[in-house]
Write a structure and sequence with these properties.
By secondary structure, this protein is of the alpha/beta class. The chain folds into 3 domains: about 5-235, ANL, N-terminal domain (Rossmann fold, 3-Layer(aba) Sandwich); about 260-310 and about 310-425, Rossmann fold, CATH 3.40.50.12780; about 430-559, 2-Layer Sandwich (GMP Synthetase, Chain A, domain 3), CATH 3.30.300.30. It contains 18 helices and 27 strands. The chain has an 8-stranded mixed sheet, with helices on both faces. Strands 12-13-14-15-16 form a 5-stranded mixed sheet. A hairpin with a 5-residue loop joins strand 22 (about 430) and strand 23. Helix 1 (about 5-15) packs across helix 2 (about 40-55), helix 2 (about 40-55) packs across helix 3 (about 70-80) and helix 7 packs across helix 8. It starts with 6 loop residues before the first helix and ends with a strand.
Protein backbone atom coordinates (compact mmCIF):
# COMPACT_ATOMS: atom_id res chain seq x y z
CA UNK A 1 0.00 0.00 0.00
CA UNK A 2 1.40 3.39 -0.98
CA UNK A 3 2.31 5.69 1.88
CA UNK A 4 -0.14 8.43 0.85
CA UNK A 5 -3.11 6.08 1.36
CA UNK A 6 -2.30 5.23 4.98
CA UNK A 7 -5.03 6.12 7.42
CA UNK A 8 -3.02 8.62 9.46
CA UNK A 9 -2.52 10.85 6.44
CA UNK A 10 -6.23 10.62 5.62
CA UNK A 11 -7.05 11.84 9.13
CA UNK A 12 -4.75 14.84 8.84
CA UNK A 13 -6.36 15.77 5.53
CA UNK A 14 -9.83 15.65 7.11
CA UNK A 15 -8.67 18.13 9.75
CA UNK A 16 -7.97 20.59 6.93
CA UNK A 17 -10.71 19.77 4.43
CA UNK A 18 -13.48 19.26 7.02
CA UNK A 19 -12.19 21.45 9.82
CA UNK A 20 -15.65 22.63 10.94
CA UNK A 21 -17.58 19.38 10.29
CA UNK A 22 -18.83 17.66 13.45
CA UNK A 23 -17.15 14.29 13.91
CA UNK A 24 -17.90 13.21 17.50
CA UNK A 25 -20.94 13.90 19.73
CA UNK A 26 -20.43 13.11 23.42
CA UNK A 27 -23.25 13.05 26.02
CA UNK A 28 -22.34 14.69 29.33
CA UNK A 29 -25.42 13.68 31.34
CA UNK A 30 -28.64 15.48 32.05
CA UNK A 31 -29.43 15.71 28.34
CA UNK A 32 -26.32 17.80 27.62
CA UNK A 33 -23.95 16.93 24.77
CA UNK A 34 -20.76 18.40 23.34
CA UNK A 35 -19.77 18.25 19.66
CA UNK A 36 -16.18 17.95 18.48
CA UNK A 37 -15.35 18.91 14.91
CA UNK A 38 -12.62 17.30 12.87
CA UNK A 39 -10.45 20.35 13.48
CA UNK A 40 -10.94 20.21 17.26
CA UNK A 41 -10.43 16.43 17.41
CA UNK A 42 -7.10 16.50 15.59
CA UNK A 43 -5.93 19.66 17.40
CA UNK A 44 -6.44 18.05 20.82
CA UNK A 45 -4.70 14.87 19.64
CA UNK A 46 -1.74 16.87 18.31
CA UNK A 47 -1.40 18.67 21.64
CA UNK A 48 -1.45 15.39 23.57
CA UNK A 49 1.07 13.87 21.16
CA UNK A 50 3.39 16.81 21.86
CA UNK A 51 2.93 16.24 25.60
CA UNK A 52 3.83 12.56 25.20
CA UNK A 53 7.02 13.58 23.37
CA UNK A 54 7.85 15.99 26.21
CA UNK A 55 7.76 13.01 28.58
CA UNK A 56 10.10 11.00 26.37
CA UNK A 57 7.29 8.77 25.14
CA UNK A 58 7.61 8.58 21.38
CA UNK A 59 8.17 6.25 18.43
CA UNK A 60 7.83 2.58 19.27
CA UNK A 61 6.10 3.15 22.63
CA UNK A 62 3.10 1.06 23.61
CA UNK A 63 0.44 3.20 25.31
CA UNK A 64 -2.72 1.76 26.87
CA UNK A 65 -6.30 3.05 27.05
CA UNK A 66 -8.77 1.81 29.70
CA UNK A 67 -12.11 3.43 28.93
CA UNK A 68 -15.64 2.92 27.78
CA UNK A 69 -16.46 4.36 24.35
CA UNK A 70 -16.22 8.14 24.32
CA UNK A 71 -14.94 10.97 22.15
CA UNK A 72 -11.62 11.10 23.97
CA UNK A 73 -10.95 7.42 23.30
CA UNK A 74 -10.71 8.45 19.63
CA UNK A 75 -8.54 11.45 20.50
CA UNK A 76 -6.24 9.39 22.73
CA UNK A 77 -5.71 6.77 20.03
CA UNK A 78 -4.95 9.46 17.47
CA UNK A 79 -2.52 11.14 19.89
CA UNK A 80 -0.72 7.82 20.35
CA UNK A 81 -0.43 7.36 16.59
CA UNK A 82 0.78 10.93 16.02
CA UNK A 83 3.40 10.46 18.75
CA UNK A 84 4.74 7.40 16.92
CA UNK A 85 3.25 4.87 19.34
CA UNK A 86 1.04 1.80 19.37
CA UNK A 87 -2.36 1.64 21.07
CA UNK A 88 -3.18 -1.09 23.59
CA UNK A 89 -6.89 -0.86 24.46
CA UNK A 90 -8.21 -2.76 27.48
CA UNK A 91 -11.84 -3.79 27.86
CA UNK A 92 -13.51 -1.39 30.31
CA UNK A 93 -15.15 -4.31 32.16
CA UNK A 94 -11.94 -6.24 32.86
CA UNK A 95 -10.93 -7.04 36.41
CA UNK A 96 -7.64 -5.98 38.01
CA UNK A 97 -5.84 -9.27 37.24
CA UNK A 98 -6.42 -9.02 33.49
CA UNK A 99 -5.66 -5.28 33.46
CA UNK A 100 -2.32 -5.90 35.13
CA UNK A 101 -1.53 -8.79 32.77
CA UNK A 102 -2.21 -6.71 29.65
CA UNK A 103 -0.31 -3.66 30.92
CA UNK A 104 2.73 -5.73 31.85
CA UNK A 105 2.67 -8.12 28.89
CA UNK A 106 2.28 -5.26 26.38
CA UNK A 107 5.14 -3.24 27.93
CA UNK A 108 2.81 -0.23 28.25
CA UNK A 109 4.64 3.00 29.12
CA UNK A 110 1.55 5.05 29.99
CA UNK A 111 -2.16 4.53 30.60
CA UNK A 112 -5.07 6.77 29.62
CA UNK A 113 -7.90 6.24 32.11
CA UNK A 114 -11.33 7.22 30.79
CA UNK A 115 -15.03 6.69 31.40
CA UNK A 116 -15.44 3.65 33.71
CA UNK A 117 -18.05 2.11 35.99
CA UNK A 118 -15.85 -0.01 38.30
CA UNK A 119 -12.59 1.94 38.64
CA UNK A 120 -12.43 1.41 42.41
CA UNK A 121 -11.99 -2.34 41.83
CA UNK A 122 -9.90 -1.99 38.66
CA UNK A 123 -7.25 0.44 39.91
CA UNK A 124 -5.54 -2.33 41.88
CA UNK A 125 -4.45 -3.74 38.50
CA UNK A 126 -2.49 -0.63 37.52
CA UNK A 127 1.19 -0.79 38.55
CA UNK A 128 2.04 2.01 40.99
CA UNK A 129 4.95 3.24 38.83
CA UNK A 130 2.96 3.45 35.56
CA UNK A 131 2.24 7.08 34.51
CA UNK A 132 -1.49 7.74 33.97
CA UNK A 133 -3.53 10.53 32.36
CA UNK A 134 -7.23 10.98 33.09
CA UNK A 135 -9.59 11.60 30.16
CA UNK A 136 -12.40 14.15 30.74
CA UNK A 137 -15.10 11.64 31.79
CA UNK A 138 -12.82 9.55 34.02
CA UNK A 139 -13.61 8.83 37.68
CA UNK A 140 -11.96 11.15 40.21
CA UNK A 141 -8.22 10.47 40.50
CA UNK A 142 -5.01 12.33 41.27
CA UNK A 143 -3.77 11.79 37.70
CA UNK A 144 -2.88 14.61 35.33
CA UNK A 145 -6.01 15.76 33.50
CA UNK A 146 -6.28 15.63 29.70
CA UNK A 147 -7.91 19.07 29.46
CA UNK A 148 -5.19 20.72 31.56
CA UNK A 149 -2.39 19.14 29.54
CA UNK A 150 -3.77 20.01 26.10
CA UNK A 151 -4.59 23.56 27.20
CA UNK A 152 -0.99 24.33 28.11
CA UNK A 153 0.74 22.37 25.31
CA UNK A 154 1.35 23.61 21.79
CA UNK A 155 0.22 21.16 19.10
CA UNK A 156 2.67 18.90 17.29
CA UNK A 157 3.49 20.67 14.03
CA UNK A 158 3.70 19.38 10.48
CA UNK A 159 2.44 16.30 8.72
CA UNK A 160 3.11 13.08 10.63
CA UNK A 161 3.77 9.91 8.64
CA UNK A 162 4.04 6.31 9.77
CA UNK A 163 5.44 3.31 7.91
CA UNK A 164 2.97 0.76 6.59
CA UNK A 165 4.52 -1.97 8.74
CA UNK A 166 4.50 0.10 11.96
CA UNK A 167 2.20 -1.30 14.63
CA UNK A 168 -0.98 0.75 14.96
CA UNK A 169 -2.48 -1.34 17.74
CA UNK A 170 -2.17 -4.51 19.76
CA UNK A 171 -5.64 -5.95 20.30
CA UNK A 172 -5.89 -8.39 23.18
CA UNK A 173 -8.52 -11.08 22.70
CA UNK A 174 -11.35 -11.02 25.20
CA UNK A 175 -10.19 -14.28 26.70
CA UNK A 176 -13.08 -16.76 26.30
CA UNK A 177 -10.47 -19.46 26.92
CA UNK A 178 -7.13 -19.07 28.65
CA UNK A 179 -4.91 -16.01 28.79
CA UNK A 180 -5.62 -13.09 26.41
CA UNK A 181 -3.40 -12.97 23.33
CA UNK A 182 -2.24 -9.71 21.72
CA UNK A 183 -2.82 -9.51 17.97
CA UNK A 184 -0.45 -7.03 16.31
CA UNK A 185 -2.24 -4.91 13.70
CA UNK A 186 -0.17 -2.72 11.37
CA UNK A 187 -1.06 0.62 9.78
CA UNK A 188 -1.19 -1.19 6.45
CA UNK A 189 -3.90 -3.51 7.81
CA UNK A 190 -5.90 -0.74 9.53
CA UNK A 191 -5.76 1.36 6.37
CA UNK A 192 -6.85 -1.51 4.11
CA UNK A 193 -9.77 -2.36 6.37
CA UNK A 194 -10.76 1.31 6.68
CA UNK A 195 -10.88 1.57 2.90
CA UNK A 196 -12.70 -1.76 2.55
CA UNK A 197 -15.49 -0.77 4.93
CA UNK A 198 -15.67 2.72 3.40
CA UNK A 199 -16.18 1.17 -0.04
CA UNK A 200 -18.90 -1.08 1.39
CA UNK A 201 -20.71 1.91 2.90
CA UNK A 202 -20.32 3.90 -0.33
CA UNK A 203 -22.39 1.27 -2.15
CA UNK A 204 -25.26 2.14 0.20
CA UNK A 205 -24.60 5.89 0.22
CA UNK A 206 -26.94 8.22 2.09
CA UNK A 207 -28.32 11.30 0.38
CA UNK A 208 -25.71 13.64 1.90
CA UNK A 209 -22.89 11.13 1.78
CA UNK A 210 -22.63 10.93 5.59
CA UNK A 211 -23.58 8.25 8.08
CA UNK A 212 -24.87 8.67 11.64
CA UNK A 213 -23.72 5.87 13.94
CA UNK A 214 -23.96 5.07 17.65
CA UNK A 215 -20.69 3.72 19.07
CA UNK A 216 -21.39 1.49 22.07
CA UNK A 217 -19.84 -1.94 21.47
CA UNK A 218 -16.40 -1.95 23.16
CA UNK A 219 -13.77 -0.06 21.18
CA UNK A 220 -11.22 -2.41 22.75
CA UNK A 221 -12.66 -5.12 20.47
CA UNK A 222 -11.77 -5.51 16.81
CA UNK A 223 -15.43 -5.41 15.68
CA UNK A 224 -16.16 -1.80 16.72
CA UNK A 225 -12.62 -0.64 15.98
CA UNK A 226 -12.66 -2.07 12.45
CA UNK A 227 -16.25 -1.50 11.30
CA UNK A 228 -16.89 1.88 12.97
CA UNK A 229 -13.61 3.59 13.86
CA UNK A 230 -11.55 2.61 10.80
CA UNK A 231 -14.00 3.81 8.11
CA UNK A 232 -14.66 6.91 10.23
CA UNK A 233 -10.95 7.73 10.23
CA UNK A 234 -10.53 6.79 6.58
CA UNK A 235 -13.55 8.44 4.98
CA UNK A 236 -14.31 11.38 7.24
CA UNK A 237 -17.96 10.67 6.46
CA UNK A 238 -19.20 9.18 9.76
CA UNK A 239 -20.76 11.27 12.50
CA UNK A 240 -20.21 9.23 15.65
CA UNK A 241 -22.52 9.51 18.66
CA UNK A 242 -21.79 7.81 21.98
CA UNK A 243 -24.09 6.14 24.49
CA UNK A 244 -24.24 7.71 27.93
CA UNK A 245 -25.10 4.57 29.93
CA UNK A 246 -27.04 1.32 29.81
CA UNK A 247 -30.03 3.04 31.40
CA UNK A 248 -30.15 5.72 28.71
CA UNK A 249 -29.44 3.43 25.77
CA UNK A 250 -32.85 3.70 24.10
CA UNK A 251 -32.77 7.50 24.53
CA UNK A 252 -29.24 7.51 23.08
CA UNK A 253 -30.50 5.60 20.05
CA UNK A 254 -33.31 8.10 19.54
CA UNK A 255 -30.83 10.97 19.87
CA UNK A 256 -28.45 9.50 17.29
CA UNK A 257 -31.10 8.05 14.94
CA UNK A 258 -28.33 5.88 13.43
CA UNK A 259 -28.22 4.97 9.77
CA UNK A 260 -25.55 2.34 10.41
CA UNK A 261 -26.13 0.09 13.42
CA UNK A 262 -24.03 -2.84 14.56
CA UNK A 263 -24.81 -5.26 17.34
CA UNK A 264 -24.13 -8.76 18.62
CA UNK A 265 -26.63 -11.64 18.70
CA UNK A 266 -27.40 -11.34 22.40
CA UNK A 267 -28.41 -7.68 22.04
CA UNK A 268 -30.47 -8.31 18.90
CA UNK A 269 -32.25 -11.00 20.92
CA UNK A 270 -32.82 -8.66 23.88
CA UNK A 271 -34.32 -6.01 21.57
CA UNK A 272 -36.72 -8.66 20.25
CA UNK A 273 -37.63 -9.87 23.72
CA UNK A 274 -38.35 -6.30 24.79
CA UNK A 275 -40.81 -5.94 21.91
CA UNK A 276 -42.48 -9.30 22.57
CA UNK A 277 -42.81 -8.49 26.28
CA UNK A 278 -45.11 -5.62 25.24
CA UNK A 279 -46.95 -7.37 22.41
CA UNK A 280 -47.54 -11.15 22.17
CA UNK A 281 -45.71 -12.74 19.25
CA UNK A 282 -48.87 -14.19 17.71
CA UNK A 283 -50.57 -10.79 17.65
CA UNK A 284 -47.49 -9.08 16.20
CA UNK A 285 -47.12 -11.73 13.49
CA UNK A 286 -50.80 -11.37 12.61
CA UNK A 287 -50.48 -7.59 12.26
CA UNK A 288 -47.25 -7.83 10.25
CA UNK A 289 -48.99 -10.24 7.88
CA UNK A 290 -51.77 -7.80 6.99
CA UNK A 291 -51.12 -6.38 3.51
CA UNK A 292 -52.01 -2.75 4.21
CA UNK A 293 -50.90 -2.10 7.76
CA UNK A 294 -48.09 -4.64 8.15
CA UNK A 295 -45.44 -2.16 6.98
CA UNK A 296 -46.83 0.54 9.26
CA UNK A 297 -46.70 -1.81 12.26
CA UNK A 298 -43.13 -2.83 11.47
CA UNK A 299 -42.14 0.80 11.10
CA UNK A 300 -43.74 1.65 14.45
CA UNK A 301 -41.83 -1.14 16.20
CA UNK A 302 -38.52 0.01 14.66
CA UNK A 303 -39.28 3.61 15.61
CA UNK A 304 -39.85 2.51 19.20
CA UNK A 305 -36.43 0.84 19.16
CA UNK A 306 -34.79 3.93 17.64
CA UNK A 307 -33.86 1.97 14.51
CA UNK A 308 -36.28 3.43 11.96
CA UNK A 309 -33.52 5.37 10.13
CA UNK A 310 -31.14 2.41 9.83
CA UNK A 311 -29.97 1.74 6.28
CA UNK A 312 -27.45 -0.95 7.19
CA UNK A 313 -27.92 -3.27 10.18
CA UNK A 314 -25.36 -5.95 10.92
CA UNK A 315 -24.71 -8.71 13.43
CA UNK A 316 -21.34 -10.35 14.06
CA UNK A 317 -19.03 -11.61 16.83
CA UNK A 318 -21.03 -14.84 17.32
CA UNK A 319 -23.63 -16.94 15.43
CA UNK A 320 -27.13 -15.47 15.31
CA UNK A 321 -30.24 -17.69 14.99
CA UNK A 322 -31.62 -17.55 11.42
CA UNK A 323 -35.16 -17.11 12.77
CA UNK A 324 -34.05 -13.95 14.56
CA UNK A 325 -32.76 -12.49 11.29
CA UNK A 326 -36.06 -13.41 9.63
CA UNK A 327 -38.02 -11.69 12.44
CA UNK A 328 -36.22 -8.38 11.91
CA UNK A 329 -36.70 -8.61 8.18
CA UNK A 330 -40.43 -8.97 8.74
CA UNK A 331 -40.27 -5.65 10.58
CA UNK A 332 -38.59 -4.09 7.56
CA UNK A 333 -35.02 -4.09 8.91
CA UNK A 334 -32.72 -5.98 6.55
CA UNK A 335 -30.45 -7.42 9.22
CA UNK A 336 -27.30 -8.85 7.64
CA UNK A 337 -24.75 -11.17 9.22
CA UNK A 338 -20.99 -10.83 8.91
CA UNK A 339 -17.92 -12.77 9.97
CA UNK A 340 -14.48 -11.77 11.10
CA UNK A 341 -12.13 -12.03 14.04
CA UNK A 342 -9.42 -10.14 15.86
CA UNK A 343 -6.69 -11.82 13.85
CA UNK A 344 -8.00 -10.47 10.50
CA UNK A 345 -9.11 -7.17 12.04
CA UNK A 346 -12.76 -8.17 11.54
CA UNK A 347 -12.38 -8.11 7.75
CA UNK A 348 -13.44 -11.42 6.27
CA UNK A 349 -17.06 -11.97 5.14
CA UNK A 350 -20.17 -9.83 4.78
CA UNK A 351 -23.71 -10.25 3.58
CA UNK A 352 -25.06 -7.98 0.86
CA UNK A 353 -28.54 -7.35 -0.47
CA UNK A 354 -27.67 -9.68 -3.37
CA UNK A 355 -25.74 -12.31 -1.44
CA UNK A 356 -27.31 -13.26 1.89
CA UNK A 357 -29.26 -16.07 3.49
CA UNK A 358 -30.25 -16.69 7.12
CA UNK A 359 -27.66 -18.99 8.65
CA UNK A 360 -24.89 -17.78 6.32
CA UNK A 361 -22.32 -15.07 7.07
CA UNK A 362 -22.00 -13.82 3.52
CA UNK A 363 -19.28 -13.67 0.88
CA UNK A 364 -15.63 -12.60 1.18
CA UNK A 365 -14.75 -8.92 1.05
CA UNK A 366 -12.59 -7.82 -1.87
CA UNK A 367 -9.06 -9.02 -1.33
CA UNK A 368 -10.02 -11.80 1.11
CA UNK A 369 -9.09 -15.37 0.20
CA UNK A 370 -10.88 -18.30 1.83
CA UNK A 371 -10.73 -22.06 1.67
CA UNK A 372 -11.97 -24.98 3.72
CA UNK A 373 -9.14 -27.04 5.18
CA UNK A 374 -8.83 -30.34 7.00
CA UNK A 375 -11.62 -31.06 9.44
CA UNK A 376 -13.79 -28.43 7.69
CA UNK A 377 -11.71 -25.64 9.25
CA UNK A 378 -12.14 -22.21 7.68
CA UNK A 379 -8.83 -20.75 6.50
CA UNK A 380 -8.61 -17.00 5.77
CA UNK A 381 -6.06 -14.68 4.20
CA UNK A 382 -7.19 -11.05 4.64
CA UNK A 383 -5.80 -7.56 3.95
CA UNK A 384 -6.51 -6.95 7.65
CA UNK A 385 -4.44 -9.91 8.79
CA UNK A 386 -2.38 -9.45 11.93
CA UNK A 387 1.40 -9.43 11.90
CA UNK A 388 1.36 -12.07 14.63
CA UNK A 389 0.79 -12.43 18.36
CA UNK A 390 2.88 -10.13 20.55
CA UNK A 391 5.67 -12.11 22.25
CA UNK A 392 4.13 -15.41 21.12
CA UNK A 393 6.03 -16.74 18.08
CA UNK A 394 5.03 -20.22 19.23
CA UNK A 395 1.37 -19.36 18.57
CA UNK A 396 2.22 -17.79 15.21
CA UNK A 397 3.66 -21.09 14.02
CA UNK A 398 0.48 -22.93 15.02
CA UNK A 399 -1.90 -20.31 13.66
CA UNK A 400 -0.86 -20.03 10.01
CA UNK A 401 -0.56 -22.48 7.15
CA UNK A 402 2.70 -22.63 5.21
CA UNK A 403 1.18 -20.42 2.50
CA UNK A 404 0.00 -17.74 4.94
CA UNK A 405 -3.66 -18.58 5.63
CA UNK A 406 -4.88 -18.04 9.18
CA UNK A 407 -6.38 -21.09 10.89
CA UNK A 408 -9.59 -19.63 12.29
CA UNK A 409 -10.56 -22.56 14.49
CA UNK A 410 -14.07 -22.29 13.04
CA UNK A 411 -15.65 -25.06 11.00
CA UNK A 412 -17.65 -24.17 7.94
CA UNK A 413 -19.00 -24.97 4.53
CA UNK A 414 -19.34 -22.89 1.35
CA UNK A 415 -22.06 -22.78 -1.25
CA UNK A 416 -21.16 -22.57 -4.96
CA UNK A 417 -22.08 -18.85 -4.92
CA UNK A 418 -19.49 -18.18 -2.21
CA UNK A 419 -21.82 -17.86 0.79
CA UNK A 420 -20.15 -19.21 3.92
CA UNK A 421 -21.86 -21.00 6.80
CA UNK A 422 -20.04 -21.32 10.13
CA UNK A 423 -21.00 -24.70 11.60
CA UNK A 424 -19.08 -24.67 14.89
CA UNK A 425 -15.74 -24.26 16.62
CA UNK A 426 -13.09 -26.96 16.24
CA UNK A 427 -12.10 -26.64 19.92
CA UNK A 428 -15.72 -26.68 21.10
CA UNK A 429 -16.40 -30.13 19.67
CA UNK A 430 -16.89 -32.76 22.35
CA UNK A 431 -17.65 -36.45 22.50
CA UNK A 432 -20.43 -38.04 24.49
CA UNK A 433 -20.29 -41.68 25.57
CA UNK A 434 -21.70 -42.52 22.13
CA UNK A 435 -18.28 -41.77 20.68
CA UNK A 436 -19.29 -39.14 18.13
CA UNK A 437 -18.39 -35.48 18.10
CA UNK A 438 -21.09 -32.94 18.95
CA UNK A 439 -20.83 -29.35 17.67
CA UNK A 440 -22.66 -27.23 20.26
CA UNK A 441 -23.13 -23.95 18.35
CA UNK A 442 -25.77 -25.11 15.81
CA UNK A 443 -27.81 -26.73 18.59
CA UNK A 444 -27.52 -23.61 20.74
CA UNK A 445 -28.81 -21.55 17.84
CA UNK A 446 -31.93 -23.72 17.73
CA UNK A 447 -32.47 -23.27 21.46
CA UNK A 448 -31.88 -19.52 21.31
CA UNK A 449 -34.70 -19.07 18.81
CA UNK A 450 -37.24 -19.51 21.63
CA UNK A 451 -38.54 -16.15 22.94
CA UNK A 452 -38.15 -17.28 26.57
CA UNK A 453 -34.42 -18.03 26.13
CA UNK A 454 -31.73 -15.36 26.39
CA UNK A 455 -28.64 -17.61 26.20
CA UNK A 456 -27.84 -21.29 26.13
CA UNK A 457 -24.91 -23.68 26.27
CA UNK A 458 -24.72 -27.30 25.13
CA UNK A 459 -22.30 -29.61 26.93
CA UNK A 460 -21.95 -33.21 28.11
CA UNK A 461 -18.38 -34.46 27.65
CA UNK A 462 -18.32 -38.24 28.22
CA UNK A 463 -21.96 -38.34 29.32
CA UNK A 464 -24.61 -40.70 27.87
CA UNK A 465 -25.99 -37.76 25.87
CA UNK A 466 -25.51 -34.03 25.59
CA UNK A 467 -27.53 -31.59 27.66
CA UNK A 468 -28.43 -27.91 27.35
CA UNK A 469 -28.49 -25.22 29.99
CA UNK A 470 -30.53 -22.08 29.36
CA UNK A 471 -30.69 -18.57 30.80
CA UNK A 472 -34.27 -17.36 30.67
CA UNK A 473 -35.21 -14.03 29.11
CA UNK A 474 -34.93 -10.97 31.31
CA UNK A 475 -38.66 -10.19 31.28
CA UNK A 476 -39.67 -13.64 32.57
CA UNK A 477 -37.07 -14.07 35.33
CA UNK A 478 -38.76 -11.83 37.95
CA UNK A 479 -42.04 -13.77 37.61
CA UNK A 480 -40.68 -17.24 38.40
CA UNK A 481 -41.78 -17.11 42.03
CA UNK A 482 -45.33 -17.62 40.73
CA UNK A 483 -45.91 -21.43 40.58
CA UNK A 484 -48.19 -21.06 37.56
CA UNK A 485 -45.53 -19.16 35.60
CA UNK A 486 -42.87 -21.68 36.60
CA UNK A 487 -45.08 -24.55 35.42
CA UNK A 488 -45.72 -22.76 32.11
CA UNK A 489 -42.00 -22.16 31.59
CA UNK A 490 -41.25 -25.81 32.33
CA UNK A 491 -43.86 -26.92 29.77
CA UNK A 492 -42.38 -24.54 27.18
CA UNK A 493 -38.87 -25.86 27.80
CA UNK A 494 -40.07 -29.48 27.49
CA UNK A 495 -41.70 -28.64 24.15
CA UNK A 496 -38.53 -26.84 23.06
CA UNK A 497 -36.40 -29.85 23.96
CA UNK A 498 -38.61 -32.06 21.82
CA UNK A 499 -38.44 -29.67 18.83
CA UNK A 500 -34.67 -29.35 19.06
CA UNK A 501 -34.18 -33.13 19.26
CA UNK A 502 -36.41 -33.67 16.23
CA UNK A 503 -34.08 -31.49 14.17
CA UNK A 504 -30.69 -32.97 15.04
CA UNK A 505 -28.92 -36.30 14.54
CA UNK A 506 -29.49 -39.09 17.05
CA UNK A 507 -26.09 -38.64 18.68
CA UNK A 508 -26.70 -34.87 19.07
CA UNK A 509 -30.01 -35.20 20.92
CA UNK A 510 -30.17 -33.57 24.33
CA UNK A 511 -31.17 -35.59 27.36
CA UNK A 512 -32.48 -32.52 29.19
CA UNK A 513 -32.66 -28.76 29.40
CA UNK A 514 -31.52 -27.18 32.66
CA UNK A 515 -32.68 -23.70 33.63
CA UNK A 516 -29.79 -21.67 35.03
CA UNK A 517 -30.26 -20.30 38.54
CA UNK A 518 -28.90 -16.85 37.67
CA UNK A 519 -28.12 -15.01 34.42
CA UNK A 520 -24.66 -15.17 32.94
CA UNK A 521 -22.90 -11.84 32.82
CA UNK A 522 -19.56 -10.18 32.30
CA UNK A 523 -19.47 -9.38 36.01
CA UNK A 524 -19.84 -12.99 37.20
CA UNK A 525 -17.25 -14.20 34.71
CA UNK A 526 -19.58 -16.25 32.51
CA UNK A 527 -19.46 -13.89 29.51
CA UNK A 528 -16.57 -12.22 27.73
CA UNK A 529 -16.68 -8.41 27.29
CA UNK A 530 -18.22 -9.09 23.85
CA UNK A 531 -20.91 -11.28 25.42
CA UNK A 532 -19.68 -14.66 24.25
CA UNK A 533 -20.18 -17.47 26.74
CA UNK A 534 -17.13 -18.72 28.64
CA UNK A 535 -17.76 -22.44 28.33
CA UNK A 536 -15.00 -23.66 30.60
CA UNK A 537 -15.99 -21.20 33.33
CA UNK A 538 -19.66 -22.26 33.22
CA UNK A 539 -18.85 -25.98 33.00
CA UNK A 540 -16.50 -25.69 35.97
CA UNK A 541 -19.20 -23.98 38.05
CA UNK A 542 -21.70 -26.75 37.23
CA UNK A 543 -19.48 -29.83 37.48
CA UNK A 544 -20.72 -30.91 40.92
CA UNK A 545 -24.37 -30.90 39.78
CA UNK A 546 -24.18 -32.65 36.42
CA UNK A 547 -24.29 -36.27 37.65
CA UNK A 548 -27.40 -35.51 39.70
CA UNK A 549 -29.10 -34.02 36.64
CA UNK A 550 -28.51 -37.16 34.62
CA UNK A 551 -29.66 -39.29 37.54
CA UNK A 552 -32.95 -37.38 37.78
CA UNK A 553 -33.99 -38.50 34.25
CA UNK A 554 -36.33 -35.55 33.72
CA UNK A 555 -36.60 -33.47 30.54
CA UNK A 556 -36.48 -30.11 32.35
CA UNK A 557 -34.55 -29.31 35.53
CA UNK A 558 -33.86 -26.20 37.56
CA UNK A 559 -30.25 -25.60 38.57
Amino acid sequence: MAEQTLILQQIQQHAVNQKDTVFLTQPLGGGKVVDYTWGETVDQARRMAAHLHSRGIGPGSHIAILSKNCAHFFMAELAIWLAGGTTVAIFPTEGPETIRFVLEHSDARLLFVGKLDTWEQQKAGVPADLPCIALPLAPHTDFNQWDDLVQRTEPLAGTVTRDADDLAMIIYTSGSTGTPKGAMITFKAVSAVGKGYTDDLASRMTADGRWRVLSYLPLAHSYERAVIASPAWHSGQLHIYFAESLDTFVADLHRARPQLFLSVPRLWLKFQQGVLAKMPEKKLNFLLGLPLIGKLVGRKVLTGLGLDQVRLAASASAPIPPDLIAWYRKLGLNLLEGYGMTEDFAFSHHSTEQHNAPGYVGIPYDGVEVRIGAGSEILIKSPGQMKGYYKRPDLDAESFTEDGFFRTGDMGERRPDGLLKVTGRVKELFKTAKGKYVAPAPIENRINEHPLVELSMVSGVGQPAAYGIVVLAEHIRPTLSDPAVRAEVEAEMAALLQRVNEGVADYERLQMLVVAREPWSIENGCLTPTMKIKRSRIEDALKDQVDNWYGARRPVLWA
